[in-house]
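Re: flavin mononucleotide structure - here you go.
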Amino acid sequence: MQDSRVQDLRSFVALLESRGELVRIAREVDPKYEMAAVMAALEKERKAFIFENVRGARFPALGGLLNKLERFGMALGYPRAEEHFDDPAFDGLLEKAKAHALKPQTVDNAPSQSVVIQGADINLHDLPVPTFFELDSGPFITAAIGTTRNPETGVQNVGVYRTLILGPRRFVINASSLSDLRRHYASAQERGEVMPIALAIGVDPAMLTAAACKLPPDHCEYEMAGGLQGRPMELARCITSDLLVPANAEFIIEGQVDFGERVENLLGEFAGQYGPETAPATEVTAITHRPDPYFYTIMAGRNPEHNTLGNVAVYGVQRSIEAALREALPGQIEDIHVYMSPGLGTLAHVVVSINKVNDGQPKEIIDKAFAGGGHIFPMSMITKRVIVVDSDIDVHSMDDVQWAIWNRAATEHKFMVIPDVQSWELERAAKEGQKSVRIGIDATMDLDDVDKLVRPITPGADEIRLEDYLGNSRGKTAA
Ligand SMILES: Cc1cc2nc3c(=O)[nH]c(=O)nc-3n(C[C@H](O)[C@H](O)[C@H](O)COP(=O)(O)O)c2cc1C
């Protein structure tokens, strides 16, 4: 059977264009705000796009390729992606790729190194890099994968990191406190070592997806990308360092970290708030690219492509919270759903259903849940709210959970507010010392009220198959 996985960015662009899902914008756009405003409008329509004429830039910009989940399915060869590709399917694909990771191969004559620019010819302003929001520190590269070596082990790491342009040959690649890159920066600085770094812009969807995944330290995302592609990634050695970068990328930007300058890089982030981060600057040592490269850009902020790709990083966190809770509450959990989505902010909202045996049980569960280890983070640091519901509530439907909250809780002790909890850096509303509140909600029926609050159920409704009543054609008169 022919492998339908997309092998590079260009074939994906061609596929989307052939299906009418990509638009080309010939009109000149200003990279400061105007481009982002048009991108935001296109994202609402879930269109992929190419800006052919960005003021002051030498190259076209494209984006929106992965602004809905089905596009990941299409790119990664999931059968009948449009009908069936959902979060569990995606998570399953990622887990399979981790289990079938493939070592990359090094190649000569990489397309991404067809043109080499060094020295005074390097000019980052040639790239069509947007400035997205009014308070942003400047133009940001948002769709690049960045790579460094662990200074202690030499193993290469890859992640997606926003990058603020500071000048023609200088930028700052951001690293959150959770990232391996943050650890690499700290380690190289402590050892007083030179630290090469490289960005690849315009890689294939499997590589971008693997880079967004949170793998354990010293598990290389190139190997996982190979697992997703079903063939080893082809890598080329950088011109100015020994880092390996994707051979099929559109652009590679090579640089050396300058620990002498730390720079704040303020950007409107994925949950719809500004993120004031700081990181060391990087001096660019070379830019290489294909003969006719596309610059890939992702609309920053709480927007579909950023959020869909961002969710990839979150699957692992959700799984680890769920496992930690099942460990902390053996035998008590009927079902569980860990919500983590930009619509609910940067923290998790955990819903646990139980078969309640006494009215004190939900509070005990809430206390234990917040006290748990959480595997990656302490639970209380990453979880804003724990809600306990009865087992007739569908934990996987926030609508049903909301219904339970507003229909089964009528005394103040069912709403718990826990003050002054240590939160993580991305909770931007946190107060001094990164302290914030946590909320517990007991949305179960009080045992005394069970008869009064019974839900109306039509016996047999769950088993009905409408086609048994409508014949073969829905909508036609029933036989
Ligand atoms: C569009 C986008 C932008 C991101 N920007 C950053 C960033 O600036 N800094 C960061 O540390 N993580 C960022 N992330 C998340 C990381 O890519 C992700 O957590 C990854 O697993 C980090 O890899 P690492 O732990 O191997 O360094 C971003 C993710 C996406 C999808």
